[in-house]
Structures are given as C-alpha cells and as structure tokens.
Design brief:
By secondary structure, this protein is mainly alpha-helical. It has one domain: Arp2/3 complex 21 kDa subunit ARPC3, CATH 1.10.1760. Helices cover 73% and strands 0% of the residues. The chain contains six helices and no strands. The protein is elongated.
Length: 177
C-alpha cells in the first residue's frame, strides 16, 4: 500500500516540523523525537520511509545541535519506536496512541540511559552503577513522557483532523480481491 502524494507530503511535513521543534528552547527532554518516530511508523506505508524520515530529521537537527557519544543509543531507540508505530498502524485510536507513546518513553529511557551507563564513564560498570544511572535520570523521564504524549497528541490528532477536513489526505482504501 502506497500513500498518495499529498498524504506523503503532509506526513513528511509533520515530521520535519516536529524535528524543527528540537531546535527551539524547551524543557530538558521535552522533545518530539519519540512522537515523530511513532507517527512515522504508524503512517508511512513504505517501511524504509518509516525509518528514513524520523531518523533523517533527527540527523538534520543533530547537525545543528551537535553530535554526542550517546547518539547510537538515541538512534537505536528511535528505530525501535518506529516499530511500535508499525504495531498500531492498522488500529490508530486515542488509546493505542497513548499506550504506545508511554511505551516509547519507557523504551527511550531504558535504552538511552543504558547507553549512558555503558559509554559515558560517569558510572561504574557495575549493577550499582547502572542503578545509579537510572535513578539519576528519573527527573528527566517526566519530561520525556510529557513530550511524547503532547507531541503524539499534536501529530496524530492534527493529522486526523486534517484527514477529516481534506479527503485527499485520507489513506487509499484497499482494493477488493
């Protein structure tokens, strides 16, 4: 199943706008990263594009913000969140979006903080060091969760509103066999 050109452009534009929001001042970890990956996974009919769009948008914003040692873990998290988007692609509802946004936050927290523990040298390479890393990151988790929920609401809700008002953006109906 492929998306119509106006639909594809609208989905790409939403992801690019979300990525651009990383560049404006914001609370720590209150970003659209998880939401744009979830949205891309849920809405792109082409699997390669579902990965390329959010990861590419992240890369472009990182070119401006700067690179860091934890990038493989951030990008890996984003790729895994795209897979969560695939999981809800056939059944996008407010409940599935909220549930996967929460799961995205937890996944991002778990993977990126594991990466911090593993590669930063800030924590000893012990279970106690790993625990200390996760405990130190708890204050940032609330902003990650709030950002994922808020930006998921904006992306999924905004796109649903656009689809309802602009029929050209609706997904093509499957052809009967």
């Amino acid at each position: 199943m492929t998306a119509s050109q106006p639909r594809l452009i609208a989905i790409l534009a939403a992801i690019l706008v979300a990525a651009a929001l990383r560049l404006v001042p914001h609370w720590p970890n209150f970003t659209p990263i998880g939401a744009m990956a979830l949205f891309g996974g849920a809405y792109f009919g082409r699997r390669a594009l579902a990965f390329a769009a959010p990861l590419g948008a992240l890369l472009v914003s990182d070119l401006i913000l700067g690179f860091h040692a934890g990038m493989p873990f951030v990008y890996g998290s984003v790729a895994l969140i795209v897979l969560l988007g695939w999981a809800i692609a056939r059944r996008i509802t407010p409940v599935t979006v909220v549930a996967t946004a929460v799961a995205s936050s937890v996944l991002f927290f778990a993977v990126t903080n594991f990466g911090t523990w593993l590669s930063s040298g800030m924590y000893p390479p012990t279970l106690a060091g790993l625990t200390a890393c996760y405990v130190a990151a708890i204050p940032f988790f609330q902003n990650t969760l709030a950002g994922d929920l808020a930006f998921s609401a904006l992306l999924f809700g905004g796109f649903a509103l656009l689809e309802s008002r602009l029929p050209v953006l609706r997904a093509p109906s499957p052809r009967p066999a």
